[in-house]
């Protein structure tokens, strides 16, 4: 969706930026890893197919995605504190990229589809193995859910009016205990048993975890995201 096309999210540990064309080559290189494709239930795509996928994510009102990056350091940052702006191609260069986080909106299985109730299915990937087990995945998801919780009306409105976000869910391979613990630590609770696809489902309410207060406490910020020459302070 286009909601976050000019938005970056920053914490002391992570930077989230919209998925842009200049991210595609790095993302495509990540997904050449068979283990990563298996873990994310992804198909192998050509570079041109990955470009088409990036475009579809931007245009589809039921999908929201950010690329996760290491945050700018105090000595190298080009983020303007005066303009509250992250600069594309500078603060999100390939060596800073870590993975992605996204959601898909679906009709709520607990409600009448005609009532406009939707749930957001969340996925996160830390592609770089050296950052596995460091807690960055949890930071990425927490920052993402904080943003979605504050902008839930705008998020569901991208795909048409009259809808209401009623919760989050994740589906995780039964054996992926690390991811299960990550989401349980963010207030998700397991429902039902193991599915035919050997997955478990965890759910959480929209306002679980004290979104707004948590953001202040953790120094989470919503910033602008611009390319050189788009009005940022020189």
From TrEMBL:
<feature type="domain" description="N-acetyltransferase">
    <location>
        <begin position="14"/>
        <end position="189"/>
    </location>
</feature>
<dbReference type="InterPro" id="IPR016181">
    <property type="entry name" value="Acyl_CoA_acyltransferase"/>
</dbReference>
<comment type="similarity">
    <text>Belongs to the acetyltransferase family. GNAT subfamily.</text>
</comment>
<dbReference type="GO" id="GO:0008080">
    <property type="term" value="F:N-acetyltransferase activity"/>
</dbReference>
<dbReference type="Pfam" id="PF13302">
    <property type="entry name" value="Acetyltransf_3"/>
</dbReference>
<keyword id="KW-0808">Transferase</keyword>
<keyword id="KW-0012">Acyltransferase</keyword>
<protein>
    <recommendedName>
        <fullName>N-acetyltransferase domain-containing protein</fullName>
    </recommendedName>
</protein>
<dbReference type="InterPro" id="IPR039135">
    <property type="entry name" value="NAT9-like"/>
</dbReference>
<dbReference type="InterPro" id="IPR000182">
    <property type="entry name" value="GNAT_dom"/>
</dbReference>
């Amino acid at each position: 969706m286009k909601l976050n096309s000019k938005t970056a999210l920053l914490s002391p540990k992570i930077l989230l930026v919209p998925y842009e064309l200049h991210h595609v080559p790095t993302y495509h290189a990540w997904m050449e890893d068979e283990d990563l494709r298996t873990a994310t239930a992804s198909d192998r795509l050509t570079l041109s197919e990955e470009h088409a996928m990036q475009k579809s994510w931007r245009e589809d009102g039921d999908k929201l995605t950010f690329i996760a990056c290491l945050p700018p350091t105090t000595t190298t940052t080009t983020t303007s504190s005066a303009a509250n702006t992250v600069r594309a191609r500078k603060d999100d260069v390939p060596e800073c990229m870590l993975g992605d986080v996204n959601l898909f909106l679906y009709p709520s299985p607990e409600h009448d589809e005609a009532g406009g109730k939707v749930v957001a299915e969340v996925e996160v990937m830390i592609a770089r193995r050296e950052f596995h087990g460091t807690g960055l995945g949890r930071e990425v998801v927490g920052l993402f859910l904080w943003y979605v919780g504050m902008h839930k009306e705008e998020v569901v409105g991208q795909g048409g009016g009259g809808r209401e976000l009623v919760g989050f869910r994740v589906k995780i391979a039964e054996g992926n205990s690390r991811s299960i613990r990550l989401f349980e630590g963010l207030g998700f609770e397991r429902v039902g048993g193991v599915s035919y696809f050997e997955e478990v489902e965890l759910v959480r309410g929209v306002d679980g975890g004290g979104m707004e207060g948590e953001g202040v406490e953790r120094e989470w910020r919503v910033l602008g995201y611009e390319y050189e020459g788009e009005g940022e302070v020189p």
